[in-house]
Amino acid sequence: MIPGVAADFSNDWLWVSAIKAVLIVVFLLTSVLFAIWFERKVVARMQVRPGPNWHGPFGLLQSLADAMKLLLKEDVNVTRADRVVYLLAPMISVFCSLLVFAVVPFGPEVTIPFTDYSTPAQLTDFPVAVLYVLACASLGVYGIVLGGWSSGSTYPLLGAVRSTAQVISYELAMGLSLVSVFIMAGSMSTSQIVASQAGIWWFLPLLPAFVVYVISMIGETNRLPFDLPEAEGELVSGYMTEYSSMKFAWFFLAEYINMLNVSAVATTLFLGGWRAPWPLSAVADGALNTGWWPVLWFLVKLWAVMFVFVWVRGTLLRLRYDQFMVFGWKVLIPVALAWVVVLSVFQYLGLAGVTRTQLITGVVVAGALVVGLLWLWPDRRGAPPGAEEGADGASGADGAGFDAFAGGYPVPPLPGQTLPPSPRARRRVPPAAVGATDTGSATDTTAVDRSEETR
Amino acid sequence: MTVSGGETALFWVLAPLMTLAALGLIFVRRAVHAAICVMFVMVGMAILYVAQEASFLGVVQVVVYTGAVMMLFLFVLMLVGIDAADSLTETIRGQRWLGVLLGLGLAAVLLGVISAATFPPAVGLAEANAVTNPVALARVLLADYVLAMEVVGVLLVTAALAGLVLTHRRRISPKVTQRDLARERVAALPQGRTLTPLPAPGVYAQNNAMDTPALGPDGAPLEHSVPRVLRIRGQARSATAVLAAEESLVARELADAGLLTADADADDDGARADGARDAHQGEER
């Protein structure tokens, strides 16, 4: 029995682990085939068209046919590619994505049918299992980055560079959102976290962290609306542009397995893992939380999160790259950080002996105070007159005024134009002076003032 | 405290591979290959850490060093584009020989220390990991060495702030937002600018080059759909030229097939590409 881990692996011999590992790989591969069909079918339904419906019942064998096609296609090697890295990159991607499910609990202790042998429905677990998941995810990016670089082509390189920046930024937010689960559960082991959710699933008390996690998990897996590394409209298909046949299929496989991975982590950490949802968990004194039932609940939740992926993809448009980065760094990370601080304070107060009623009262009073303050706060001083026109004047649309920074470079005034007052002088032009010069320079004054305010 | 058989096997598999990768870092010619070697060494070390029951250290090593630091290195390498053509000239005279000398000295010192050292059996792992590895580590770091941790944290924050300050650039003109750009486009309408992106060049069955104008909804060729550079160089082709080329092509093919008749009505055959026919009509208008 490993200390700090709820599941008991002391009965597992090597061959039990081997069988579990094989089962996980089989589960992942079949799930990917199903996920592709699922995604195409759901998106099709959202767009009022039938989707794949030709091969097999409900078109279920369509992705199998696609996989066979990819296997049999010609494997094109780019002349300018760095051969070794070019081959290594998709392997890294797939390998790292396959690792994550090793620590995901499918269920509690299960008994193998027709035997007395019982074992946890999980390959392994250790005290830092969730960090291990993050480690696998961060290694998997190497596949994308190296694939983009080794293709020896511009679009893949751009995709790779984007992907690096994106994954590093969104991993921070993701890690911070997971921290609040660690604080509440008091552990980083997946089985222990599931055990800690016997009372309430963490997504309710930790709603802000859950929202941050869901957003950053979409960013982490390069899915729409965050699929900038493979944006079709801009980069053909980003890092996998030069890949074909089976090597392309590996990238494809890795992307879908990664979706399953982050969904499984969301399920385990926030959605109660394998625990039955509320009305069912009360049935027959928790009988639905034992035996093989939990595997069903786990799969249901997993596919519910997968549905969110597809839903978001079918609904939202791709972000512009700078907006995406601004969102990650200026919204997600501060929110996640602030939430961790708030939660730590609450946790500390809880440990210090403050009761829940007192806490809630305190929060309500503080909230009322903040709202009251905002209510009574004096209005912002009216926007400087001509601020709107100032923006136009600065961009040179009206053409009459003197733009001291035409084209981004400081330029001297032409005859007939006057230099706007220096922003360093920290003085405004008196109204009389404004009247004396033309309106253009007045608007420029406000523009310069505003730019100083933003510094 | 003994080393289990599995751990020994793991070590003897990983250690030679890691040594190879570490040597690769020195001898490999391309910077990205060197980065991959370092990554391999780091992951190998992480696996060894985990095998030695320092699971937190092992995993954090991958998350922080391999996942973030090495990734940033790679990022810079790809942006800067360091290649095999790196200059290998010595910038400091005699630097190579000095390096070799110092390396030999270090090796001698290390060998001396290692050969002189005795290795008593390791003790205390069970006590240290009694409350699980991360918790025990947290107690050491955040209770015994909390001041050092805080100092290091302040140092890192200072360094990060310094990075921000050093790369900060003062904005010398107001920021142009998407709203400003949209307003500018609308304001420029009287000057003949369009609100939408320019139309793409024409794509016809016979050619999909960028030098042929697209046809508007009224069938008239849109000259501005051809890139400006081609127009200025005089390399744009008119739709009529495409049509003429297409007609001669059709005529040749028909002649080859022995189907050419003197009948002029063959012009309006379905053999001609739709796009070309549209172009023809557009020209007539």
From TrEMBL, chain A:
Disordered as annotated region, ranges: 384-455
Q: Which reaction does it catalyse?
A: a quinone + NADH + 5 H(+)(in) = a quinol + NAD(+) + 4 H(+)(out)
How does this protein lie in the membrane? Multi-pass membrane protein
Fetch the Pfam families from UniProt: NADHdh
Indicate, by first and last residue, each region the UniProt record lists as having compositional bias (Low complexity): 384-408, 430-446
Main localization of the protein described in the UniProt heading: membrane
Q: Where in the cell is it found?
A: Cell membrane; Membrane
Composition bias, Pro residues: 410-423
Q: Does the keyword Secreted apply?
A: no
Supply the enzyme class, top level.
translocase
- The EC number(s) given in the record are 7.1.1.-
* Keyword set includes Methyltransferase: no
Q: Name one GO molecular function term.
A: oxidoreductase activity
Which sequence ranges are marked TM in the entry?
13-38, 84-106, 126-146, 167-188, 200-219, 248-271, 291-312, 324-346, 358-377
Top-level taxonomic group: Bacteria
What keywords would UniProt list here?
A: Cell membrane, Membrane, NAD, Oxidoreductase, Quinone, Translocase, Transmembrane, Transmembrane helix, Ubiquinone
**Recorded family membership:** Belongs to the complex I subunit 1 family.
Q: How does it assemble?
A: NDH-1 is composed of 14 different subunits. Subunits NuoA, H, J, K, L, M, N constitute the membrane sector of the complex.
What is the protein's known function? Answer: NDH-1 shuttles electrons from NADH, via FMN and iron-sulfur (Fe-S) centers, to quinones in the respiratory chain. The immediate electron acceptor for the enzyme in this species is believed to be ubiquinone. Couples the redox reaction to proton translocation (for every two electrons transferred, four hydrogen ions are translocated across the cytoplasmic membrane), and thus conserves the redox energy in a proton gradient. This subunit may bind ubiquinone.
The protein here is known as NADH-quinone oxidoreductase subunit H
Q: What is the lineage of its organism?
A: Bacteria, Bacillati, Actinomycetota, Actinomycetes, Micrococcales
From TrEMBL, chain B:
Q: Name one Pfam family in it.
A: Oxidored_q3
The entry lists its GO molecular-function terms as: oxidoreductase activity
Q: Which family does it belong to?
A: Belongs to the complex I subunit 6 family.
The identity of this protein, by name, is NADH-quinone oxidoreductase subunit J
What does the UniProt keyword field contain? Cell membrane, Membrane, NAD, Oxidoreductase, Quinone, Transmembrane, Transmembrane helix
Q: What organism does this protein naturally occur in?
A: Isoptericola luteus
Region Disordered, residue ranges: 261-285
Q: In terms of domain of life, where is this protein from?
A: Bacteria
Regions of compositional bias (Basic and acidic residues) in chain numbering: 269-285
**Compartments where located:** Cell membrane
- InterPro entries, per the entry: NADH_UbQ/plastoQ_OxRdtase_su6 (IPR001457), Nuo/plastoQ_OxRdtase_6_NuoJ (IPR042106)
Instruction: Give membrane topology per the record.
Output: Multi-pass membrane protein
Give start-end ranges for the coiled-coil region(s): none
Catalysis performed (reactions): a quinone + NADH + 5 H(+)(in) = a quinol + NAD(+) + 4 H(+)(out)
Q: Which NCBIfam families match?
A: PRK06638.1-5
TM stretches of this protein: 6-27, 34-51, 63-85, 97-119, 145-166
Q: What biological function has been recorded for the protein in this entry? A: NDH-1 shuttles electrons from NADH, via FMN and iron-sulfur (Fe-S) centers, to quinones in the respiratory chain. Couples the redox reaction to proton translocation (for every two electrons transferred, four hydrogen ions are translocated across the cytoplasmic membrane), and thus conserves the redox energy in a proton gradient.
Q: Does the keyword ATP-binding apply?
A: no
* The enzyme's E.C. designation: 7.1.1.-
Q: What is its main location?
A: membrane
